[in-house]
Amino acid sequence: MHRYLIVVLFIFSFGSLFSDEPIHSSTQEPSAEKNSYKYISINPGVTLESVSLSIQGRSRDALMVQDGPGRVSWLLDIKSPEYQISEYFGVNLLLHNSSFYLNRQSIPKVLSRNQSTEVSSSESDSGSASSSDNSWKPNRTKVIEDIDTNIEGTYSMLVPIFYIGNPDTFRFGLGFGPAHVKLKGNVDFKDAASNLLIAYSSSNRDAFLNNLRGFQFVSGNINPESDPALTYLITNLSTGNNLEMVGYYLASQGLLRPDLTAATAYLSGRFNAVESLAISSLMRNQVGVNSVAKFAFMMYFESPPFLGMRGRVSFGGPIVKENGYTYELRTFHFALYMPIEF
């Protein structure tokens, strides 16, 4: 709350830089006077937003997307006064906030479901194929699936915008600035078969838990700054009932789901139900980001006012680097909002 208050005060101060300009005579061009509000514009409305999250690093990559074409949500952007440099060029400051929930993952497949073994053999016999035949490179196939991973989060971008147009015309705007990003959830960089192979390479419970702990370190999941409680439990995973405590902790965050890995662990007789679910979740990468992105961008196309409303189509998002991974958010939204100007 304090962060947003500081941002609003900053935008208010940005507007006051231009509020004391001398009043021009009526003989000057209308564009020189055009500044429809003096201090701040609050823009409530609705938006249809599509969000994707690319995660890359440590020789791994994953793409998280939404279920469906997009999500309808409320919009509450804040803008500084629009300082018109000339009749068709201007600048302002935009604070844009959004939240999202991603529950589908694009994962690479060695063979897609609609490919036969003949496709694989023909690839080995021939070093090239026609550009119209996409099946000769099955290792590049990516399928959007629900593999029991999900990431939810929020972001806030404070972007200085340079636009072409004026308040009474269509406008094209482009800006770059910082952003605050929060992410929580999990992602799977491997196929289920690979997870099972790594997880059950040892028949001894303690040896397996030590291997699982090492997997967490290698994957960059151990981060005392972002989640000290989970870090402590994973560091001492084979001690006492810490594995079960990890299960309860992840359950409180909605990160436990039954799947083949959990069922296999439970049927082995070495783990109870909660421990089995915890193992399944730990075989995925835990995502916990609460960081300031140094780079975020937005470009948009905005309509002139009609019936007191404005429409806006925009594309952009922040990029965060943390724990050896790069988290790149890409958002596309269509917004309809009503400016409330002061």
Explained architecture:
The structure is a single chain. By secondary structure, the chain is of the alpha+beta class. Helices cover 26% and strands 40% of the residues. The protein contains 9 helices and 13 strands. The protein is elongated and about 75 Å long. It starts with a helix and ends with a strand.
Please give a handful of descriptors for the protein shown:
single chain; 342 residues; alpha+beta; 8-stranded antiparallel β-barrel; 13 strands; 40% strand; elongated
Uncertain segments of ≥5 residues (pLDDT<50)? 1-34, 110-140
Helix content: 25-40%
Work out the radius of gyration.
25 Å
Number of helices: 9
Proportion of β residues?
A: 35-45%
| Straight-line distance between termini | 21 Å
What characterizes the major β-sheet?
A: 8 strands, antiparallel, barrel
Structural class: alpha+beta
Spatial shape: elongated
SSE succession: HHEEEEEEHEEEHHHHHHEEEE
Question: Can you give the mean pLDDT?
Answer: 77
Strand order of the largest sheet: 1-3-5-8-9-10-11-12
Q: How many β strands by DSSP?
A: 13
Q: How are the SSEs placed, and which strands pair?
A:
Blueprint: H1 2-16, H2 30-33, E1 41-57, E2 60-65, E3 71-79, E4 83-86, E5 89-102, E6 104-108, H3 117-125, E7 142-145, E8 150-164, E9 171-187, H4 192-199, H5 205-219, H6 228-235, H7 242-252, H8 260-267, H9 273-282, E10 285-302, E11 310-322, E12 325-337, E13 340-341
Antiparallel strand pairs: 1-2, 1-3, 1-12, 1-13, 2-6, 3-5, 4-5, 5-8, 6-7, 8-9, 9-10, 10-11, 11-12
